[in-house]
Amino acid sequence: MLEVLLLVVAALVVGYSKTSIGGLSAISIAIFANVMPARESTAAILLLLITGDVVAVWKYRRHADWSLLKRLVPSVLPGLALGAAFLAVVDDTVLRRSIGVLLLVLAALQLALRFRSPDTSGLARSRPAALGTGLAAGFTTMTANAAGSVMTLYLVARGVEKSRFLGTGALFFFGVNLCKIPFSAGLGLFTAETLRRTVLLIPFVLLGTWAGLHTARRLSQERFDQAVLAATIVSAVALVAR
Fold first, then answer.
1. At residue 144, what are phi and psi to the nearest 5 degrees?
2. Which residues, other chains included, contact 236 with Cβ-Cβ below 8 Å and sequence gap of 6+?
3. b vs e for 219-234, b when ≥16 Cβ sit within 10 Å of the residue's Cβ?
4. Most exposed residue of 136, 141, 219, 235, measured as fewest CB within 10 angstroms of its CB?
5. Which DSSP symbol is given to 61?
6. Quick check: 114 and 229 in contact, CB under 8 A?
7. Which residues make Cβ contacts (< 8 Å) with residue 73, sequence separation at least 6?
8. Spatial distance between the Cα atoms of 38 and 167, rounded to a whole number of angstroms
9. How far apart, in whole angstroms, are the C-alpha atoms of residue 140 and residue 109?
């Protein structure tokens, strides 16, 4: 019963994060990685993320920054390929711990940017930063569905305001998550049980997206930035402490 409740909460958070505080999706990643075998959890939550992506794209597509997307996309596919290779050779324990450490490192980087180097927009606008972000996003999203933290780091460093943040992230993750399907299928991660759980949890994802839409309208830019950072830190600690 507790396992079912945790998965329902995770599905609600997935939907909520897709339409409001993106970093919160890492909490769902932590829950799934603890409730299910880590490898299978990446496929299960992927399908829920895509459900949330559809709603987010429909709502925020007009605010997407296509110039940012064009800079990020070229290096995403190599990152996905590296992530798939990593998944093929590691066991559940290594993967779970890797996910936690990765999220914690990303959270630390975000804190460093926020409190030690407030004016980082020049560095973040460079082409190497965009290529590195795309590569890291591809790898982290393939191995842990954790690219939200990478994108948060990049977009916050560039000083992207809330609406553009949500619109750009919505289109980016929808495209990236669709690209991950053949990789996950090739690794044999879409089991019958995974698909069954996904179908049962989709209504809770949609409920979460509705709640997120109402929250996003009320958050100021400052509160939004603080919330996405806090969500990443809490999620990282939850996985590392497991």
1. -145, 5
2. 26, 100, 103, 104, 106, 107
3. beeeebbebbbebbbb
4. 219
5. G
6. yes
7. 134, 172, 175
8. 30
9. 15
Distance of CA 99 to the CA centre of its chain: 12
53-99 pLDDT, tens digit each: 999 999 998 888 888 888 888 888 888 888 888 877 877 667 767 76
The region that residue 89 occupies, defined by phi over 0 for left and psi between -120 and 50 for alpha, beta otherwise, is alpha
Contact 85, 218 (CB under 8 A): no
CA quadruple 69, 163, 227, 41: dihedral, nearest 10: -50
**Is the pTM higher than 0.85?**
no
Angle at 24 between CA 20 and CA 25, to 5 degrees: 100
CB 140 within 8 A of CB 147: yes
